[in-house]
UniProtKB/TrEMBL annotation:
SUPFAM superfamilies: ARM repeat, PH domain-like. This is Serine/threonine-protein phosphatase 4 regulatory subunit 3. It comes from the Eukaryota. PANTHER family: ATP SYNTHASE GAMMA-RELATED (PTHR23318), SERINE_THREONINE-PROTEIN PHOSPHATASE 4 REGULATORY SUBUNIT 3B (PTHR23318:SF18). Regulatory subunit of serine/threonine-protein phosphatase 4. It comes from Aldrovandia affinis. Residues 144-649 form the Serine/threonine-protein phosphatase 4 regulatory subunit 3-like central domain. The lineage of its organism: Eukaryota, Metazoa, Chordata, Craniata, Vertebrata. Gene3D superfamilies: Pleckstrin-homology domain (PH domain)/Phosphotyrosine-binding domain (PTB). Residues 669-701, 723-833 are annotated as: Disordered. Residues 731-757, 791-801 have a biased composition (Pro residues). Residues 669-687 have a biased composition (Acidic residues). Residues 5-101 form the PP4R3 EVH1-like domain.
Length: 833
């Protein structure tokens, strides 16, 4: 048969009746030697490993669903499914399966379950009548009954038939009566057989049998049978524990008898599963899936019944928050709510939402605020568990309650501050409770779960609230343990000398590490708020004091905090670090570490390597200027030499940039002279520009125009001299320019015009002159007085508003406009020297 590959996902059905993804690969139907038949083979697309190797059995019922799914069962409680990416692949594999079984590919299921049962009954159980007919329920037949129950566990069909027989004849009740007889007679052999029988019946995994076995009048006898394990010398006393040691505590009397019975039953069945029955082997782990489901649905029913009884819950909350309630009673109430919330995890999502909303409406959060501040460790631990359920369910609900709390004069009464104080004051040497509370705080301040579209201001409002009312409580231990002792010369040599009130013991170091972990999270996610807090409190300096701690993990936490700050590449932080010289404790820690190649050494070098790779210029300059002499001896890595190289390269670039603008005056004059010479050479060979108006609007030639301007200038000068003579002031006669060989500008400058408006757009005029521009639009104001043109000096290129530049006055370097008649394009004319 041809090897046909199709991309599929392999799924298996778990005991909770949920599909587990086993991987993605390609399926083929080929002959496998060890399976001795055509098999479905799935190889993983990642590494080629075998995800599934299943022989296509002629008697297995394969079912095709939704055009891209093939589902089948290979054993009891072991269901498989192939989900195809393409319908064509599913159709092809389906045809192969039908071909092996001799079925029409048009069918959606290859075997009829009824036919299969009948067929298996004759093929696998030739002695079916003997197995269905149970032996008489007598003491002499207990061994035969035990052998029968044990033998059917390997066959799903036999198990099904045995379960039906046990149910139809009321056999369970008879067996439990025999147990009482054997126990009265102290018949240990019979009791051992009954243990095997009851254990086997539980492994039949049938809910109908569980209903009989776990009823009020039968469950204790079932527990009694399971006490006589043949592997034990003496029987366990489970019934004694359940009846005498374990006591049912009613914090508030439960009047509903059905609810009471369900609670008792659930506890006892849970005890059987967790305590009495041995841990199932790999082959037996699916045998008790129905027992797990039985307990699950019992819990769902208990939660639903309690939730519907509003009178009961209201009374519980009233006593929980009543100051007159005794401590023992309050402890029981809190433990009740803890178990109540644990049961709620079995609810479906929509039912769980309704459950927690009911608790919120009844006032669970104000009640927690009271009990979490109590001195009883058990009460606080239970309250913490309840609080964790609420935070996991809805962080927004908790945040909303916190922000709506009345602003007391004392911030310690706020719920979050109560949580922080409980974290700080955890007496557990391993800080197990503190770790749990730190995780809850992290969830509450995580902006990722503050993105609800219905309340877009939640992030800003809550973070502002947290940094105003709660952050100082969180950082109090850190600031207290890093207080600078100015009277001690060795205040930075070891954190044990920083503050004698809070010694640097292991528990304190663990607490500071937790706080630093939370602050590092804030640096990554609260850029604005945490930046202001760090600057205000000079927090980084205080944190870096912990680099001297004898606990390396605490020094690494402090270094990680600085690494996150530098990783933001924020110049605001960089200036703060440079100004405070905050690299000094880090470099001191590196030098003190010596030649030891450990995690601290690698982490510090990685910090400087990041600065080098990211080319953070301000930090590189600061490090090289202040610390390179201490670091240049470190040659086992090239990090610090690389920093020096980057520093020198940047310095060279800055020098080149400065030299570009620091040219001497003689060089500037030479360049200016060259520019003017080139400009004049271009003007001499420039073709004439056509006139856009009749010639009578202008002088006949440019020369005549210049002569006319000279005459007007001379008349104006004579008038000015006459006026000055009348006032008794000497007048210096104007100097006549030399005779030009080409048309030149008059000695007196023509009228200057103001800069063009910003909205004027310019395009380069297609002419030979390199600095010629023509306006596409210009607004004229005839009433405006002539003003000076704002053109730049001659060594710059003309700006866009400079029009046709026909010359420059080398003395004044000012371009001038040639006069024109209305409507004619404007031309610039320069004055000759």
């Amino acid at each position: 048969m041809s090897d046909t590959r199709r991309r599929v996902k392999v799924y298996t059905l778990n005991e909770d009746r949920q599909w587990d993804d086993r991987g993605t690969g390609h399926v083929s139907s080929i002959f496998v030697e060890r399976q001795k038949g055509i098999s479905l083979l799935v190889r993983a697309e990642s590494d080629g490993s075998i995800l599934l190797e299943s022989r296509i059995s002629p008697n297995t019922a394969y079912q095709k669903q939704q055009d891209t799914l093939i589902v089948w069962s290979e054993a009891e409680n072991y269901d498989l499914a192939l989900s195809f990416q393409e319908k064509a692949g599913c159709d092809e594999i389906w045809e192969k399966i039908c071909q092996v079984q001799g079925k029409d590919p048009a069918v959606e299921i290859t075997q009829d379950p009824i036919d299969e049962s009948e067929e298996e009954r004759f093929e696998e159980m030739p002695e079916t009548s003997h197995l269905v007919d149970l032996p008489p329920c007598e003491l002499a037949k207990l061994e035969e009954i035990a052998d029968l129950v044990t033998s059917v566990l390997s066959s799903p069909i036999r198990r099904e038939k045995l379960a039906l027989a046990l149910m139809s004849e009321g056999y369970i009740k008879k067996l439990l009566q025999l147990f009482q007889t054997c126990e009265d007679l102290d018949n240990r052999e019979g009791l051992h057989h009954l243990y095997e029988i009851v254990r086997g019946v539980l492994f039949l995994n049938k809910a109908a049998l569980f209903e009989v076995m776990f009823s009020d009048d039968s469950i204790m006898d079932v527990v009694g049978c399971l006490e006589y394990d043949p592997a034990l010398v003496q029987p366990k006393r489970h019934r004694e524990f359940l009846t005498k040691t374990a006591r049912f505590k009613e914090v508030i009397p439960i009047t509903d008898s059905e609810l009471r019975q369900k609670i008792h039953q659930t506890y006892r069945v849970q005890y059987i599963q967790d305590i009495i029955l041995p841990t199932p082997s790999v082959f037996e782990e699916n045998f008790l899936s129905t027992l797990t489901s039985f307990i699950f649905f019992n819990k769902v029913e208990i939660v639903s019944m309690l939730q519907e009884d509003e009178k009961f819950l209201t009374e519980v909350f009233a006593q929980l928050t009543d100051e007159a309630t005794e401590d023992g009673k309050r402890r029981e109430l809190v433990n009740f709510f803890k178990e109540f919330c644990a049961f709620s995890q079995t609810l479906q999502p929509q039912n769980r939402d309704a459950f927690f909303k009911t608790l919120a409406n009844l006032g669970i959060l104000p009640a927690l605020e009271i009990v979490m501040g109590m001195d009883d460790l058990q009460v606080r631990a239970a309250a913490t568990d309840i609080f964790s359920y609420l935070v996991e369910f809805s962080p927004s609900m908790v945040r909303e309650f916190v922000m709506q709390e009345p602003q007391q004069t004392d911030d310690d009464v706020l719920l979050i501050n109560v949580v922080i104080k409980q974290m700080i004051c955890d007496t557990d040497p391993e800080l197990g409770g503190a770790v749990q509370l730190m995780g809850l705080l992290r969830t509450l301040i995580d902006p990722e779960n503050m993105l609800a579209p219905t309340n877009k201001t939640e992030k800003t409002e809550f973070l502002s609230f947290f940094y105003k009312y709660c952050m100082h409580v969180l950082t109090a231990p850190l600031l207290a343990n890093t207080a600078d002792d100015k009277n001690s010369k060795d205040s930075l040599e070891g954190s044990t000398k920083i503050n004698p009130v809070c010694p640097d013991n292991f528990q304190t170091a663990q607490l500071l590490a937790l706080i630093l972990e939370l602050l590092t999270f804030c640096v990554e996610h609260h850029t604005y708020h945490v930046k202001n807090y760090i600057m205000t409190k000079d927090l980084l300096r205080r944190v870096l004091m912990l680099m001297n701690s004898k606990h390396t993990f605490l020094a690494l936490c402090a270094l990680r905090f600085m690494r996150r700050i530098i990783g933001l590449k924020d110049e605001f932080y960089n200036r703060y670090i440079i100004k405070g010289n905050l690299f000094e404790p880090v470099i001191n820690a590196l030098l003190d570490n010596g030649t030891r190649y450990n995690l601290l050494n690698s982490a510090i070098i990685e910090l400087f390597e990041f600065i080098k790779v990211e080319d953070i210029k301000s930090l590189i300059a600061h490090i090289v200027d202040n610390f390179y002499k201490a670091l240049e001896s470190i040659e086992y890595v090239q990090t610090f030499k690389g920093l020096k190289t980057r520093y020198e390269q940047e310095k060279d670039r800055q020098n080149q940039r400065l030299n570009r603008y620091r040219r001497d005056a003689r060089s500037l004059e030479d360049d200016e002279e060259m520019w003017f010479n080139e400009d004049e050479d271009e003007d001499e060979g420039e073709p004439a520009v056509e006139k856009s108006k009749p010639e009578e609007d202008f002088p006949e030639s440019y020369g005549k125009y210049i002569e006319g301007k000279k005459a007007a200038a001379a008349a104006a000068a004579a008038a000015a001299n006459g006026a000055n003579s009348a006032n008794g002031k000497p007048v210096t006669p104007p100097t006549s320019p030399p005779a030009p060989t080409a048309p030149t500008a008059p000695a007196q400058r023509p009228p200057r015009y103001p800069p063009l408006p910003d909205q004027a757009r310019w395009t380069r005029e297609p002419t030979a002159h390199p600095h010629s521009y023509t306006p596409t639009r210009i607004q004229e104001d005839q009433s405006r007085q002539p003003t000076a043109c704002q053109c730049p000096p001659p060594w710059h290129l003309p700006p866009p508003h400079a029009l046709r530049c026909t010359g420059r006055d080398r003395a004044s370097t000012a371009a001038t406009f040639s006069p024109r008649s209305p409507g004619e394009p404007v031309r610039l004319a320069g004055l000759a020297a």
